[in-house]
Amino acid sequence: MALVNTIVGALKSAAACRYAVPTSSSLLQRHNRLALGNNYNGGSAFYSNITVEKKGKKNNVGFIQLNRPKALNALCDALMKELQTALSDFSKDEEVGCVVLTGSNKAFAAGADIKEMQPREFAEVYKGDFLGFWNSISLFKKPIIAAVNGYALGGGCEIAMMCDIIYAGEKAKFGQPEILLGTIPGGGGTQRLTQAVGKSKAMEMVLTGDQISAQEALQFGLVANVYPVEELVDKVMEKAEKIASMSQIATGMAKEAVNSSYEMTLAEGIHLERRLFHSTFATILKLAINSIGSCNMGIINAKLITCKQYIRNVPLLDLKTCARIMRTAPTCFYVK
After folding, report:
1. Which of 77, 133, 180, 241 has an alpha carbon within 20 to 30 A of 335's alpha carbon?
2. CATH of 2-244, one of 2.130.10.120, 3.40.50.720, 3.90.226.10, 3.60.21.10
């Protein structure tokens, strides 16, 4: 309880977020950044509450870090709006095949900004678009990974669960402590947590405000793996670069198929999966099969199959050469 009071105190004492008023200069900079498209590498200068850059050996991983350390990365409206903007930019960037979302070693995000929420009344939040920005994470079509160190509480736990994969540092803590403030989760916590850890554990966490450790989160399936604090970001970047090297169309389809399992019956989910699988045969993969069908085992490097080639069904790619050159490539499609 003392720990929760400390966190609540930090959130209440944090300065409220404020929206930056764009000057003509900043508008011009943003216009130039958008115009640069794939060549844009960075972005911290355009944000007050997050840092944004492109990382990886091939510059194909979007990297977003929540940056309100004094408030333990409390999720104010301005931060969430900036996060929405960054994700929108990465969505349009054809070089970016995966995004990593992280915080600091002390806190991924300790919850929503309590000071910002306190003066709001029922009519305001009910009629307005309160928490509307939060959907940008769950609606993001490219794979997004949460790298969680420190506290992921309340809204912080919720936005981590909106991501496709969660990796945790060994000192990470997860929880939905809203009940201690006389409220309940409002960003999907009761739903996604139940799907991740089961009804009984989710009910215990929501009704008591108790937190779980990184190892417990791994045991319950909330996170995919746990790493030492100082190694977390590097390990996550390795996974992100691997995912980003795959075909973006294929990873998008895979993400859609897996996520549909939470909202469909088994029969409906299998039907969707099969239709998505079938659709790949109208793409460059169909050309691959035709090109190397006479081989006993042909190999095509997935990194050579781009979105444009998928969509436009370009027939000029020399797939036999690709198969021969990339025969030992670890990331590949095998076609009989």
Report:
1. 241
2. 3.90.226.10
